[in-house]
């Protein structure tokens, strides 16, 4: 999630755990602790693919954060004595640190909760920026500064509201999963890999990506659609050159769970993460090979994708509200020429 959300979550968690001992300084310390795991963005791993794959790695690992919280609490108690017992202080530090990666694991990017075991965890029920999750936390934090005798209770209320929103997001995701399963049943795509994630800033409109061997299918579905049939666009998946070894390509395949598109642009072969973006506006694209003479793996180069435009927001908003005219042609969103195809006809 974004840094504002993580700081707000850390502050609210600190306030709730501190209880009657909560003060503005405790909230500030919680915000700092909640932001701490993301300091790994300051590290460079040598190339853009490694920077992407290894972000949310060791600094988000429960195996690292748990002992680190013990050390941090001990140092805090030793050098800055507080009114908290050591156990209470350790619980506060641990809760602020651990809730950060747990929240991150609910986004499409994925989080290595069990590093050094290389298993990215992603349950993408939240977009990386979601005001409906963040605003309740910010409101209760502001209110707690105005009514300081109720700090802990207000922080607890904020966490309860935000947790209910997470529960809703998981419920909405399950609704969309059921729609997709029903629509794919009896088609050649039944049982194929499916990725479902919310579109920007909401949990009402969801993006669906379905893969087969040579193509992927992209569609939108809103939880308030009257007609639950999803119109999909079929697009080429592309292939990686046979016999060409690339550590970075293997890293991306593992990190994305195989949701990668390969596309030749001039002499370069560009790999795009299909999980993050919409249409042609994919956030992470890398040139991994070159075909000037023959296919050769190269050091990864970050490639800029198509930029989102403000003019696209009304279309997404209308689609969120259930206007399925937008589904008939995703070009309104992504400006791609393919036509929507009914999966039942394949």
Question: What is the spatial order of strands in the main beta sheet?
Answer: 1-2-3-4-11
- Helix-strand sequence: HHHHHHHEEEEHEEEEEEHHE
Number of strands: 11
Percent helix, as a range, is 40-55%
Query: What's the helix count?
Result: 10
The count of domains is: 2
- N- to C-terminal distance: 38 Å
Rounded mean pLDDT score: 89
| Low-pLDDT sequence parts | 327-342
The rough form would be described as globular
Pfam families: YdjM
Protein name: Metal-dependent hydrolase
Transmembrane segments: 58-76, 83-103, 123-147, 154-176
Keywords: Hydrolase, Membrane, Transmembrane, Transmembrane helix
Question: What are the salient characteristics of this protein?
Answer:
alpha+beta, 2 domains, 346 residues, four-stranded antiparallel β-sheet, five-stranded antiparallel β-sheet, globular
Can you put this structure into words, describing what you see?
This protein is α+β, with helices and mostly antiparallel strands. The protein folds into 2 domains: 3-169, no CATH class; 185-345, no CATH class. It has 10 helices and 11 strands. A 5-stranded antiparallel β-sheet has the order 1-2-3-4-11. Strands 5-6-9-10 form a 4-stranded antiparallel β-sheet. A two-stranded antiparallel sheet has the order 7-8. α1 (3-18) runs antiparallel to α5 (86-104). The radius of gyration is 22 Å and the shape is globular. The protein starts with a helix and ends in a 5-residue tail after the last strand. The model is unreliable at 327-342 (pLDDT under 50). Keywords: Hydrolase, Membrane, Transmembrane, Transmembrane helix. The chain crosses the membrane at residues 58-76, 83-103, 123-147, 154-176. This is Metal-dependent hydrolase. Pfam families: YdjM.
């Amino acid at each position: 999630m974004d840094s504002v959300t993580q700081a707000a979550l850390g502050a609210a968690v600190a306030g709730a755990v501190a209880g009657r001992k909560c003060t503005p300084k405790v909230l500030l310390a919680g915000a700092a602790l909640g932001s701490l795991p993301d300091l790994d963005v300051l590290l460079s791993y040598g190339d853009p693919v490694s920077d992407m794959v290894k972000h949310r790695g060791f600094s988000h690992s429960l195996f690292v954060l748990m002992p680190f919280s013990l050390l941090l609490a001990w140092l805090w108690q030793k050098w800055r004595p507080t009114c908290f017992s050591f156990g209470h202080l350790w619980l506060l530090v641990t809760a602020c640190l651990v809730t950060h990666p747990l929240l991150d694991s609910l986004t499409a990017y994925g989080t290595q909760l069990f590093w050094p075991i290389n298993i990215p965890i992603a349950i993408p029920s939240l977009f990386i920026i979601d005001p409906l999750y963040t605003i309740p936390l910010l409101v209760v934090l502001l209110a707690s500064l105005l009514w300081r005798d109720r700090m802990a209770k207000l922080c607890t209320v904020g966490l309860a509201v935000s947790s209910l929103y997470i529960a809703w997001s998981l419920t909405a995701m399950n609704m969309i999963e059921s729609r997709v399963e029903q629509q794919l049943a009896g088609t050649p795509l039944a049982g194929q890999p499916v990725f479902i994630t919310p579109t920007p800033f909401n949990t009402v409109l969801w993006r669906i990506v379905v893969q087969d061997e040579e193509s992927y299918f992209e569609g939108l579905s809103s939880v308030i659609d009257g007609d639950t049939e999803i119109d999909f666009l079929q697009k080429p998946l592309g292939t990686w050159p046979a016999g060409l070894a690339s550590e970075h390509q293997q890293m991306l395949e593992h990190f994305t769970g195989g949701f990668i598109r390969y596309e030749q642009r001039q002499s370069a072969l560009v790999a795009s993460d299909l999980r993050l973006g919409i249409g042609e506006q994919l956030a992470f694209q890398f040139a991994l090979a070159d075909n000037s003479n023959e296919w050769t793996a190269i050091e990864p180069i970050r490639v800029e994708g198509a930029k989102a435009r403000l003019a696209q927001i009304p279309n997404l908003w209308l689609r969120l509200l259930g206007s399925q005219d937008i589904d008939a042609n995703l070009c309104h969103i992504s400006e791609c020429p393919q036509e929507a195809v009914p999966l039942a006809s394949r």
